[in-house]
Amino acid sequence: MRVELDEPKCVASGQCVMVAPDVFDQRxxxxxxxxxxxxPEETRLGDVREAVAICPAAAIRLLEP
Amino acid sequence: xxxxxxxVLVVGASAAGLAAAETLRRDGFAxxxxxxxxxxxxxxDRPPLSKQILAGQWEADRxxxxxDEHLADLCLDMRLGVTATGLDVSxxxxxxxxxxxxxxxxxxxxxxVRPRRLPGDGAHxxxxxxxxxxxxxxxxxxxxxxxxxxxxxxxxAAAVARGLGAEVTVLEPAPVPLAxxxxxxxxxxxxxxxxxxxxxxxxxxGVTAVARGGVQLAGGELIAADEVxxxxxxLPNTEWLEDSGLTIDDGxxxxxxxxxxxxxxxxxxxxxxxxxxxxxxxxxxxxxxxAEQGMAAARNLLDPDSSKPFAPVPYFWSDQYDxxxxxxxxxxxxxxxxxxxxxxxxxxxxxxxxxxDRVAGILGVGMPPKAVRPWxxxxxxRAPWSSINA
Lengths: 65, 390
Known about the structure:
The structure holds 2 protein chains of 2 kinds.
Chain A: E1 2-5, H1 15-19, E2 24-26, E3 33-35, H2 45-54, E4 60-63
Antiparallel strand pairs in A: 1-4, 2-3
Chain B: E1 7-11, H1 15-26, E2 32-37, H2 52-55, H3 68-73, E3 77-80, E4 84-88, E5 93-96, E6 101-103, E7 106-109, E8 113-115, H4 129-137, E9 144-148, H5 152-163, E10 167-172, H6 179-182, H7 184-196, E11 200-203, E12 207-211, E13 214-217, E14 222-224, E15 227-230, E16 234-236, E17 252-253, E18 259-261, E19 264-266, E20 271-275, E21 280-282, H8 287-302, E22 315-320, E23 323-329, E24 336-343, E25 348-355, E26 358-365, H9 369-380
Helix pairs in contact in B: 1-8
């Protein structure tokens, strides 16, 4: 599993961090999200998909091989 | 999963409808999904319409909520540019413009809202991509824009228009911008920001009509404008449900499971549901609620016997000038606010909102996420007001 984050699209809602705090975090200065890992463990698939679905900016993409 | 559900119909193809359809697939539903949308475009995002699209920073293709190949993977029967005109709950059928009827085993109503308008022609509204592009085309240095209504849309559009060099007048009947949404104290901070950026903000002013060359005030005065944007709130798109037998009361009335009737659910801007976390009936026009409620409705629809109450902490953000305003909770009807970090004067603060004896909401401007999170948690856990030492 590979995750992509479109930072310029991010609106700093932090929804992804609430769903998958081991995959996403937010910058302290402006709250924009960043990836803690681009290739999360397969066991994290459910929560990463939830983050993709819940992101209010459609800024997260999941690329499955 | 109830074995009898073979066909799900989702009416409304924006954030809530898409979230519902996507969740059905993600949770393993392999039956037919029909997604009906009134607009011709595939599902697109609306918050950037009053921000990056109006500012000319983004082209329209950046708004797509999902890539084409992702939509294709969902195997939806998508009917775009098609309006639903009626619902027969007992026959489990939705009538579409053109006369066709589509049957369903379960239905998600996600038809959203449309802008309220004023009498008179020639004003802009801002709800669709077409609306945003039409307004953007007519904004520029020296253009006189009158914005009627200082809610989220009006305030954001005013800020963008100033950035484009337009002369902007904002007319608002309440004493401050966003009065209902954020209260008087924070509204006053926003008012000052607009004044500092050269907006001619006039509060306590009622507009009766759009007139030739401007707008007409309640007292008869004409305010001249090259362009007029009417941003005075929205109306739920429920007319097509009038004869359905569903309860309609400023939205489709649902229980805490987002159900309006057996097998009928509603989500997003159009849904009025009972939120047990705040023990209140609410209809939320925020982007995050659309996705969350679409997901919740889809899950309850698939497995009604283990339905979960939809009890979110509502969230909104708004970008105005260099301010990002973020709020968690249900601020409407609050009785008191307390600044718990920073200061209003610096436009960098965190304010807690009290309703009854609890922390009902938190609003931050320019605050780091780590400072906001514990407060969101306080709202989610119904923390008593006395616990915050405000």
